[in-house]
Amino acid sequence: MEQKDKQHVRRRKKLGGLLTMPFILGNDASEKLAVVGFNTNMISYLTTQLHLPLAKAANTVTNFSGTASLTPLLGAFIADSYAGKFWTITFASIIYQIGMISLTVSAILPNLRPPPCLGEDSICQEANSSQLAVLYVSLLLAALGAGGIRPCVVAFGADQLDESTWTYFNWFYFVQGSAILVAVTLIVYIQDNVGWGWGLGVPTMAMFISIIVFVVGYPMYRNLDPNGSPFTRLLQVGVAAFRKRKLRSVVDGDVLYQNDELDASISLGGKLLHTKQMKFLDKAAIVTEEDDDLKAPNLWRLNTVHRIEELKSLIRMGPIWASGILLITAYAQQHTFSLQQAKTMDRHLTNNFQIPAGSMSVFTSVTMLATTALYDRVLIRVARRLTGLDRGIGFLQRMGIGFVISTLATLVAGLVEVKRKRAAIAHGLVDHPRATIPISVFWLVPQYSLHGMAEAFMSIGHLEFFYDQAPESMRSTAMALFWTAISAGNYVSTLLVSLVHKFSAGPDGSNWLPNSNLNKGKLEYFYWLITLLQVINLIYYICCAKLYVYKPIQVHNKGGGDNNTASNDENQVELANKV
């Protein structure tokens, strides 16, 4: 059995490599082009084409983003349990394609949208239930497709490489950022100036091409076989520990049950070593008289140390996972209220050309790309001399820097909103929501750019953290956790907007977040509320990072033996204390 596993590892290393990257990253870039090309400007589509009130439209945007980031749990389960990453990505891409086609058709056919407004101040007819149903079904299909692509394509790409996965994550995000840059410039421009049919049709065609290219690369990919449901294994550990809850805890971890043959298929990258945290779970590995057949144990009563440590690893990752939620809540405002700010400001570059409001996200993308490239080519080399780490700084440190920058971004956003409203008052435009306030839209650049810089640090660090700290057999599941943090962040944004809209409403019709006239609102208060929440979240994160225990792993050396390695990155522990 051991010889067979060694041969399997050698066979895997013959495949994969850098040649597979264009096929894999091309698929992800097309998905990102499609979702960002619509999501960035969705608030405009919902308010100008479907005539939804601002608060309802903002919540629709964040609900879609939240759902599209929640479905990766389903995609990861299917990939890790049954289909494998390649087939999950392929079929999910097809579902995504169907959703994009449906969305494009709804933007082309007039009867799937309400009639246009007749005048600048006329009352517009809101989309009816049938028209909204087509929209929601299309978005649901896109969300389901994204659920299969997002958690798998990151892990699938990393599986093709034997070393320097931290470099892969940097360039993975760089490619994504490039797709986003095209989406927020070319695609948004087409939507605003040519039409939504072409604006959605172009990314739909790009998605179709990417599916063909991705499938063509199949013979070159390193495909890891699914190892059964990771959720079942986690549940088995929990049930076994509960059934043996009355047993006395074992002090010596060496007496706990281990079975290398049983764990062979889920520990090809290395066996997890016993840790002293969460000792109640260790009871699942205590051998009793009832566990008489150790070659084929009842996994609902007896589990190996490796399987117990898989569960411990995921539990330890939980607090760090939760810390990323509020950053996404702050980031989500770029596609809702920041975009509405931009629509009221002077966006002219020349007398005949003005920047589409949805294209303001270009500053986020450019800053993110520049920061990622600078980090990968300059900052890592400098930090490497100081820390001795190959990746420069630990991923927990990188995330912490992102949290600080994100907090600064929402603080700046509130200050800019104060200036925008003062300009509206000075020019007597408070009662004219569709009038252009004579203040340059470039005042919004700092908040957009700071969010891009924060993403380059926090989001890439988050990806590194999940991939590095997750058990090898659960890496698609770990990538899904990354997306569920994004999902939760968007849903928290929806909840926050709804609560603020409800409880800030005054008897005179005033509101922090008014439906139709942003000039009469208190958007700056909303931004500062998010800033305060992020400060609290930063303190929480620092505490979590200091207490975090890295997974210990025993890796296999080239000769087939085991290196006595107590941690997958010994320097990370020391760095964690400096966050």
From TrEMBL:
One protein family per Pfam: PTR2
Keywords associated with the record: Membrane, Transmembrane, Transmembrane helix
Region (Disordered): 560-579
Entry GO terms, CC: membrane
TM regions (residue ranges): 86-112, 132-156, 168-190, 196-218, 353-375, 395-416, 479-505, 525-549
Principal location class: membrane
Bilayer topology: Multi-pass membrane protein
Cell compartments where the protein resides: Membrane
InterPro entries: MFS_trans_sf, POT_fam
GO-annotated molecular function: transmembrane transporter activity
Family per record: Belongs to the major facilitator superfamily. Proton-dependent oligopeptide transporter (POT/PTR) (TC 2.A.17) family.
The protein's name: Protein NRT1/ PTR FAMILY 3.1
Protein source organism: Senna tora
